[in-house]
Amino acid sequence: MPQSTSRLGVLDQLTGYHLRRAFGAFGADFHIAMEGTGLRQVLFAILSIVSNSPGINQSRVGKLLGIKRANMVSLINELIDLGLIFRMEDPRDRRSMSLTVTAAGTALIREGLKKIRAHEERMLAGFTDDEKQILLDLLRRIEARAPAT
Amino acid sequence: MPQSTSRLGVLDQLTGYHLRRAFGAFGADFHIAMEGTGLRQVLFAILSIVSNSPGINQSRVGKLLGIKRANMVSLINELIDLGLIFRMEDPRDRRSMSLTVTAAGTALIREGLKKIRAHEERMLAGFTDDEKQILLDLLRRIEARAPAT
DNA sequence: TATTGTTATACTCTATAACTATA
DNA sequence: TATAGTTATAGAGTATAACAATA
Q: B104 Cβ partners below 8 Å, 6+ apart?
């Protein structure tokens, strides 16, 4: 197995290296795809979680997405400033802030999702449906090894 | 196909989302694995490229790794300060800085690689050799879509 | 003109520590 | 005590613009 075939040497056989590069490629194209919407990867993810579980609080969103409580604050503030979600005190537990997506938020999710699906098709052009599912499966199994947030 | 099975909703079917999470999981474990060596993912990658192509200049390393010229400067300075590489003017093109790994750098690559291999085995525990190769193959095909640096 | 290295700068992501208010 | 939200802060990754020296 000629590793000198690649100018990358040992790197070429490291999953972590290729994960980093593939993530970078996806991120760059995502950024271009979402231009004009004001959404970044994290913001869309949060918006989508809140939309899926109306009334959820910040900490739970953070746990689902692997984002620390402290870092959630400014992200939620951004989404509120953009008029995409609103936040109110949970009457049953006044420590919690209950989050809900606004109508504008719902509309932006729909629009964003369209752009994201096009972006994913672009990045996965040439992949069969089988390969796409296998990739998702393998990535999910790696995620399962992540430390709790 | 019940997407409501997952609290992640649409996210769960997005490759970009899982790529982000899997990358995060790998990165966190890499960080722990390399504690004490002073190496981060990028530093090891640069070191490894320079070791594989002695005399290479900063721009070429950056192009191989997808790192911008401007951001290479401080990274190379770090490696020099750590005594892992040295830099000298290329006599044939005095704009270029020729990079070479020191003996200490070579030793640290060897030590780091051992730790990285253990880290990868940990993250890919339960993966067959076939699955590991398939994952590498799929990731490489995604990388190929990255914009030039 | 184009390229290499460089400086300066800004934005984002991630992490930790410490505080408050509630439970 | 434990948890939710918050503030402050620091380190790291990534991006652009502009400049000097060299090709």
A: B83, B84
Task: Please give the single-letter amino acid code of residue A3.
Answer: Q
Amino acid at B114: K
* Contact residues for strand C with beta carbon within 7 Å: A 40-42, 66-68, 70-71, 75, 93-95, 149; B 20, 24, 28, 57-60, 69-70, 72-73, 76, 93, 95-97
* Residues A36-81: tens digit of each pLDDT: 999 999 999 999 999 999 999 999 999 999 999 999 999 999 999 9
Residue reference for tokens 């190769």:
B133
From CA B149, how far away is CA B144, in angstroms rounded? 12
* pTM to 2 decimal places: 0.94
d(CA B6, CA B127): 23
Quote the radius of gyration of chain A (alpha carbons, Å).
19
